[in-house]
């Protein structure tokens, strides 16, 4: 073969190999918006092409400088890889350049379409309270706006301790937004309401949205109960009067005295607190009373409140012969709930049994049955004690008393309660099949929890069972999103069976099954004279359903008849746009009539546009 011909053949071969190794060029996705700008109430229509035929395409809009807002449901590309969808500009949406994004699930094709919001004004706070503070007994008035018209909403309170509370304990407040999305209600702070910052939380399942507003309850400090010894000091022979408040009215109260050397001697054998929770008793100090600081101790049998008040006996009477007063120490001197404190106290009789009990900062005694500890040959006792998981913050006192010697010693220590970390979830979002891990704290040790989930459409489903806190009151559990989980924001709810503490933890499921609306209209866009066909499901057979129309100009058209659900629980009806009707975004609202014959409450809002 001639050199020139050989060169030509090699060139063809190399070129063919190069072409064979080159992937076919993919068509770039393109899209457009119409109109490209608008104000609140405008429906922006989007078209796009270049996706894989039949693939699902997820959509979201991103405002200027804001977080992405998912558009549900997703859409499916047609046989040509094209798709159409729309987005309604809502009142209060920020002005500026927005981006509508579309991503193909199979092809991973990503498309961004710009559009602009103009003429929008900030909305007033979507939820308000008046007054914003007040003492227990105050009636707080709340107003919320922007809710789904005619839809029942959930509402609850979060107290300063972070515990969720019902507006009316054990009852549904039955709050339903008006036809224009407004809601007003009141709540009276009970007389025993905790002082501090509270939050009112409202959840609108129709819009998958939560609103909250803070307010303060200013609980007046309760007057300190009267507690005194009169006179505070005196010579042997003085009659000391002991007055102690803070007990339960009518309860039996025991009393005793602790001598300067730590011995316990009986005082008044039987006392009953008066209707104000106060007891008064007297002790006539004998001529032989030991000089030094005594303690008058009073303890309620029902309330468990124990109060020790010091007073002094003068003179020079020595202590009776015997060991010195019990003295002790504790390590560490302070710690958080769950800390193990080690006590050492000496001064008891040799090998005697010694009872002990902790007293909380509010004077309440932890009155559980406890096995006495035994003193060693030198009259010394040691004790390891674990602070409760929900222990009060403040100064505690551990009291030790010898069964035989009646000698008594007290050791003070401090419990510091750190702020409880908020409940959390990891990861914050994920597709169906993701295992979500949840953490919460502040429950009782080994407390059982009930759990359930709220889906983006407001449906409640059962959560994991056998969820239990550990010995510190912390709990962790997991839940795996099923393959058919719908996309959007979910809420995991956990409630302690003993404490009643409720934790609500939000997370998102991405790339989930599109949420198919049970209420639809065909077509979505029309003009004067167009007949729109509606259908809505989820009602009970033969249930009566009311409906009304919100026009773009703010007026409401009411209909003088009710719709009746068929055998499948579906209602169907039509509406023809009359001549002279305003153009813009219309909202058709439907809701169960809530008769005594049918126990149901279903509501929907269906949007359509007249041009």
Describe the fold and architecture:
The protein is mainly beta. Among the domains are: about 90 residues, Immunoglobulin-like, CATH 2.60.40; about 90 residues, Macroglobulin (MG2) domain (Immunoglobulin-like); about 90 residues, Sandwich (Immunoglobulin-like); about 90 residues, Immunoglobulin-like, CATH 2.60.40.1930. Helices cover about 5% and strands about 45% of the residues. The protein contains one helix and 52 strands. Strands 10, 12, 13, 14, 16 and 17 form a six-stranded mixed β-sheet that branches. Strands 19, 21, 22, 23, 25 and 26 form a six-stranded mixed β-sheet that branches. Strands 36, 38, 39, 40, 42 and 43 form a six-stranded mixed β-sheet that branches. A hairpin with a 5-residue loop joins strand 7 and strand 8. It is elongated and about 110 Å long. The protein starts with a helix and ends with a strand. The N terminus is likely disordered.
Comma- or semicolon-separated keywords:
Immunoglobulin-like, 47% strand, six-stranded mixed β-sheet, mainly beta, 611 residues, elongated, single chain, disordered N terminus
Q: What is the terminal separation in angstroms? A: 76 Å
DSSP summary, beta strand count: 52
CATH class of the domain at 519-610: Mainly Beta
**Quaternary organisation of the protein chains:** single chain
Shape: elongated
What proportion strand?
over 45%
Low-confidence spans: pLDDT under 50, at least 5 residues? Answer: 1-27
Say which CATH homologous superfamily of the domain at 519-610 is assigned.
Macroglobulin (MG2) domain
Q: What value does the Rg take, in angstroms?
A: 37 Å
- Helix count equals 1
Task: Classify the helix fraction into a percent range.
Answer: under 10%
């Amino acid at each position: 073969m001639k050199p020139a011909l050989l060169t030509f053949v090699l060139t063809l071969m190399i070129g063919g190999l190069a072409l064979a190794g080159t992937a076919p060029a993919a068509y770039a996705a393109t899209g457009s918006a119409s109109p490209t700008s608008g104000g609140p109430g405008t429906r922006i229509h989007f078209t796009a092409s270049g996706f894989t035929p039949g693939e699902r395409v997820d959509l979201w809009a991103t405002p200027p400088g804001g977080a992405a807002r998912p558009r549900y449901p997703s859409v499916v590309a047609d046989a040509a890889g094209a798709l159409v969808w729309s987005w309604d500009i809502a009142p209060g949406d920020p002005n500026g350049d927005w981006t509508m994004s579309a991503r193909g699930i199979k092809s991973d094709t990503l498309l961004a379409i710009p559009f602009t919001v103009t003429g929008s004004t900030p909305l007033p706070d979507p939820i308000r309270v008046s007054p914003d503070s007040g003492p227990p007994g105050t009636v707080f008035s709340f107003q919320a706006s922007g809710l789904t018209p005619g839809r029942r909403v959930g509402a609850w309170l979060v107290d300063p301790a972070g515990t969720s509370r019902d507006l009316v304990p054990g009852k549904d407040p039955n709050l339903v937004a008006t036809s224009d999305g407004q809601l007003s209600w009141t709540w009276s702070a009970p007389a025993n309401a905790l002082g501090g910052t509270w939050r009112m939380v409202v959840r609108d399942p129709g819009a998958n949205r939560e609103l909250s507003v803070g307010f303060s309850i200013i609980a007046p400090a309760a007057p300190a109960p009267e507690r005194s010894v009169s006179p505070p000091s005196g010579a042997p022979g003085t009659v000391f009067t002991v007055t102690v408040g803070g007990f339960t009215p009518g309860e039996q109260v025991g009393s005793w005295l602790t001598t300067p050397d730590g011995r316990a001697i009986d005082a008044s054998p039987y006392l009953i607190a008066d209707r104000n929770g106060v007891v008064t008793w007297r002790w006539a100090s004998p001529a032989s009373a030991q000089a030094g600081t005594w303690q008058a101790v009073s303890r309620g049998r029902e309330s468990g409140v124990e109060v020790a008040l010091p007073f002094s006996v003068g003179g020079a009477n020595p202590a009776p012969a015997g060991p010195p007063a019990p003295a002790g120490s504790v390590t560490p001197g302070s710690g958080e709930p769950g800390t193990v404190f080690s006590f050492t106290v000496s001064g008891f009789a040799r090998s005697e049994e010694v009872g002990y009990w902790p007293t909380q900062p509010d004077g309440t005694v932890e009155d559980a049955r406890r096995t006495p500890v035994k003193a060693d040959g030198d009259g010394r006792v040691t004790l390891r004690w674990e602070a409760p998981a929900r222990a009060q913050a403040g100064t505690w006192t551990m009291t030790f008393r010898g069964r035989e010697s009646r000698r008594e010693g007290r050791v003070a220590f401090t419990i510091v309660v750190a702020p409880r970390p908020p409940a959390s979830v990891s990861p914050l979002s994920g597709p169906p099949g993701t295992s979500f891990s949840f953490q919460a704290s502040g429950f009782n040790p080994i407390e059982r929890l009930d759990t359930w989930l709220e889906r983006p459409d407001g449906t409640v489903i059962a959560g994991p069972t056998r969820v239990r806190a550990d010995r510190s009151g912390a709990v962790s559990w997991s839940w795996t999103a099923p393959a058919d989980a719908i996309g959007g924001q979910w809420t995991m709810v956990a409630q302690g069976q003993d404490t009643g503490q409720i934790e609500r933890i939000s997370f998102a499921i991405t790339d989930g099954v599109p949420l198919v609306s049970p209420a639809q209209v065909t077509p979505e866009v029309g003009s004067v004279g167009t007949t729109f066909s509606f259908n809505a499901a989820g009602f009970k057979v033969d249930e009566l359903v009311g409906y009304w129309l919100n026009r773009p100009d703010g007026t409401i058209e009411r209909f003088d008849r009710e719709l009746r659900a068929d055998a499948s629980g579906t209602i169907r009806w039509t509406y023809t746009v009359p001549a002279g009707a305003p153009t813009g975004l219309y909202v058709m609202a439907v809701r169960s009539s809530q008769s005594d014959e049918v126990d149901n409450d279903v509501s929907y809002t269906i949007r359509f546009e007249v041009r």
